[in-house]
Amino acid sequence: MTPASLSATAAASTGSDTGASTASEQSQQQQLRCERWVARAMEQLAPSALRHQLYAYCAYCAPGAAYGAWFDAAQKHLVVCSSTPSPAATTMLVRHELVHAVDVLLEGVDLDNDDALACSEIRAYRWAQCRNEFWFLRASCVRRSVVPSLQQHFADDEKRVQQLITANLARCMQKADIVHD
Ligand SMILES: [Zn+2]
Hints:
Bound molecules: zinc ion
Number of domains: 2
Oligomer: single chain
Distance between the termini: 29 Å
Helix content: 40-55%
């Protein structure tokens, strides 16, 4: 499993005023800011059973990276790109990755199983990126959002991705939220 295998997309951060600070000072500030936001989101959202076995932190991501965060199941790492633009965006990314962490570390879900992987992605988008959509728009939001994540796993096999979403969408949308609200 690659580190970016359970990644979530985030809005790219907009270039901000650099002022007099050097690039490295700026990236250090970005890193510290990200760490603070991640810590706060973990405090608010992570089930206590998970908090002590999951290491959440920020890391540099290449500009234009297709993902904003990822969960590394083998290492038990939840990683957010330090370029994350705001507390709200960070919380959303942490919420998404926490669903994967709950599935794997608490529920024993095997993400090497295609249906289980699709289900975990559906749940993650349902409870993060699409959670504030009106209920009648939520399924289409999830369907739309899950596609790029699953395409990374199935080498852009569009037919397989659509098949997995159709087979799992309704069932996995209904699974209860395990991440704290
Ligand atoms: Zn995901």
